[in-house]
Design a protein that fits this description.
With 458 residues, the chain is α/β, with parallel strands linked by helices. The protein contains 20 helices and ten strands. The radius of gyration is 25 Å and the shape is globular. InterPro entries: COMT-like, COMT_C, COMT_dimerisation, SAM-dependent_MTases_sf, WH-like_DNA-bd_sf, WH_DNA-bd_sf.
């Protein structure tokens, strides 16, 4: 179905009309529209809303959400803004798969029979998701897939990501306040003092728990699901921007890139396809390396294996350095999962393996504060146009969601650029350049004593 441009214009008109109605309600007489920065109560705040203003707020919120859901990439919206408990039910019972061969829709009684769920309760769950523009209610109690819900098919990595986000993350978050209030755990940076630990009662860190395959075979599937989910996450946040925005071709033919902690190699696969001159080294825990070498790469990038452009080597990067002498050591979404002490262990291990001219590329979210203060030119990230918050507010909310999720799951954090630079300096690395890779960013570093020779100017 082709996009309905008239519908876009209609939504824009509704947004404009609703905003003007609300503006007029505030400015009638000698009134004014209060700034978000004000703390003093405004006269209208304590009054029952006039019917036209209440309606305008509802139209404004609904139209803005529908416009964003219509125009944003569907995986962006699915990852950002769905109610977790209802989304989890849809994922567990594979509702998108049930509806996949029913484009005209299926009655909820039939859906319930297929997945073994009471239809009246299932209808209420689906109706909430429809209000979020995920699925559509074609007629009363008849539901169909739409542009968002098809992102949740079991064959899509976003299905695995959704199970992780609505499972471990959401469950652990229920104990966040209690964890923060704990006089011992609250100020601790120890990984096992997380809200997830308090919820589950597990004495070990989440990733270590998943690694206990010999004691609990179910953990193998859990770890695999997380690895697949990270492929979905990378797609949703368009992490692949780094494949084209960073000058890999300037490294020269045969340059070696070590994707350290790269899981099954979602990013390395894209590098292999886009830059066949690179020699890639993928390093992670043993289970992920077996999954990568035996399952993922033969299906997704067999040509790299046939041409010996990829090497798989297991590693515990807390106790051993990565493959020596690589041109780039690439870490995507690694350091944010660990406290400062363990980040330093990883970076110091890399520093031992570097040769003259090697560099480290840390690919993470870089937290921006909302105060709008300027940074030195070489450290300044793009700021949003006024009057938006300088960090784009809701437009870049995902980095703050992820920051809190990391606190919940493993008691770690996203970091600011200054914090990454400080980490590097403590590990014997020097800051070279900050890159902007769409949603995420990159911090490029080199060994501090070779910086004057290897520094980039562009």
């Amino acid at each position: 179905m082709a996009p309905n441009l008239d519908r876009i214009s209609s939504l824009l008109n509704l947004i404009n009309e609703a905003a003007r109605t609300l503006e007029a309600g505030y400015t009638t007489g000698d009134g004014y529209v209060p700034s978000l920065d004000e703390t003093k109560a405004y006269p209208l705040d304590k009054q029952i809303s006039a019917p036209e203003m209440k309606e305008a707020v509802q139209v404004l919120e609904g139209a803005c959400a529908q416009l964003c859901a219509t125009l944003a990439r569907p995986n962006h919206t699915v990852v950002n803004a769905l109610e977790p408990s209802c989304l989890r039910a849809a994922l567990i019972f594979k509702i998108p798969d049930i509806l996949q061969d029913q484009p005209a829709g299926m009655h909820v009684v039939d859906i319930g029979q297929r997945c073994g769920v009471d239809p009246s309760k299932l209808a209420r769950i689906l109706r909430l998701l429809c209000a979020k523009h995920c699925f559509r209610e074609v007629h009363k109690d008849i539901f169909a897939n739409n542009r968002l819900s098809v992102q949740l098919l079991a064959s899509n990595p976003l299905h695995s990501l959704g199970l992780h986000m609505t499972g471990d993350t959401t469950a652990g978050a229920t104990k966040l306040a209690e964890t923060l209030a704990d006089p011992y755990w609250g100020p601790s940076s120890v990984p096992v003092h997380s809200a997830w630990n308090k919820f589950t009662g597990q004495p070990m860190a989440m990733f270590d728990y998943w690694a206990q395959v010999s004691q609990n075979p179910d953990m193998h599937a859990h770890g695999e699901r997380f690895g697949i989910g990270m492929i979905g996450w990378g797609t949703a946040v368009e992490a692949a921007v780094v494949v084209h925005a960073y000058p890999w071709n300037e490294l020269g033919p045969g340059a070696t890139v070590c994707d350290l902690g790269g899981g099954v190699g979602a990013m390395a696969i894209q590098l292999a396809r886009a830059h066949p001159g690179l020699q890639l080294k993928l390093q992670d825990l043993p289970d992920r390396m077996v999954q990568a070498e035996k399952v993922v790469w033969p299906a997704e990038c067999p040509e790299a294996m046939e041409q010996n452009r990829i090497e798989f080597r297991q590693i515990d990067f807390f106790i051993e350095p990565p493959i020596a002498g690589c041109d780039v050591y690439y870490l995507k979404n690694i350091l944010h999962a660990f406290p400062t002490s363990q980040c330093l262990a990883i970076l110091k291990g890399i520093r031992k393996s570097m040769k003259p001219g090697s560099r480290v590329l840390i690919h993470e979210y870089i937290l921006q504060t909302a105060d709008g203060s300027d940074q030195p030119a070489d450290r300044q990230l793009t700021k949003a146009p006024s009057p938006l918050l300088s960090n784009y507010g809701e437009g870049r909310i995902r980095q703050y969601y992820l920051d809190v999720s990391l606190m919940v799951l493993v008691n770690s954090q996203e970091r600011t650029l200054d914090e990454y630079i400080e980490l590097g300096e403590k590990a014997g690395l020097r800051f070279m350049k900050v890159w902007e890779f769409g949603d995420m960013s990159g911090v490029e570093m080199c060994a501090n004593e070779v910086y004057p020779v290897a520094a980039r100017t562009k």
